[in-house]
């Protein structure tokens, strides 16, 4: 699996005539406020929204299928070539579209209806998975075919990723956005554990080809969900025009936007390179096996699930939360770098996953809360770029650091990046909590 002249405006949900995000309209009384507060508490409160429940259920199936296929593709390439370099080439090529085109994908998301756009992108993903399944079943899935389908999927992702990010905010009331974003993160991080595990069982029992079929079928779930989903909208907003440059100007004038983006660019470039660091840490530092690496990846993923889920308890992310999460992430990375044994590293990696994905979820929620619907697709495209599009550069830099100083040095560089990002954010003066949903939405 893993925005636009027409953008969905989130429904004002606080009261019959109250603004979005308020606790209630004037005159509702203490009982109404208490009832509203009760409705809005809890990490799972976004599931009270029927549109989000449909979408959430579809994402569970689709995300798991995605990681089943990714695992099977890696195994297939190794079977065909016996070369880790060939596998690295496939992974690197798959990241090029996001690196080159990622910031531009939000322009389409800001010009078309998000639900219809996602139906197209998700159906295309399903067709690509089905094509790989049929080719593999006929013995025609060589490395060039795998690279071609990987690149095609990455091109679709340039549009799909920011569209999915922006679509979430149209499915829940503003007060529940943090819960929705955190649950989305839980789905993805859980799929990182469930998908490879299921793929391992299928590969051992019947080979890689059925894994591609599983992924193709999984897209039916999200397509059914999108057909039935009706966003909480009071209408649509026509974009004022402009593309990426206009979005950059918009973000540059709002600290609530450029600060999280800058923090994520620094942290994402140097701290989120676990795919490069963990195998070397397991093998060279702790003289471990593939099982050691698998255990490290698992505890990191479990921590990330809990970190994402914890953000759902927050109604409105504040700057101090973001700074604190970045600092906690840096401390956890430093603790992992200093871990004397694998057992200690498992504990520190759990904390690393929790702190790191708390930071990611807080930053994503902040961007969605503070961006106008007319710009949200392009803002989230910038977010996807600084989070995922910089992976090829970050992986190369981290690999160079590992060659010079080993995995502990790589982890410490990531820790320093987190501290630098937190220091930058703490020095920027911003109003306490201006609500973009109140200031940017046109009069209803």
UniProtKB/TrEMBL annotation:
- Enumerate the UniProt keywords alphabetically: Cell membrane, Membrane, Transmembrane, Transmembrane helix, Transport
Q: Where are the transmembrane segments?
A: 54-78, 84-105, 141-159, 216-237, 257-281, 293-314, 321-339, 345-367, 379-402, 408-425
The protein's matches in CDD domains, at most eight in alphabetical order, are given as: MFS_MefA_like (cd06173)
Residue ranges annotated as compositionally biased, kind Low complexity, are 11-23
Domain Major facilitator superfamily (MFS) profile residues, every copy:
219-444
For the region Disordered, give the residue spans: 1-34
The membrane-topology field of this record reads: Multi-pass membrane protein
The protein, known as? MFS transporter
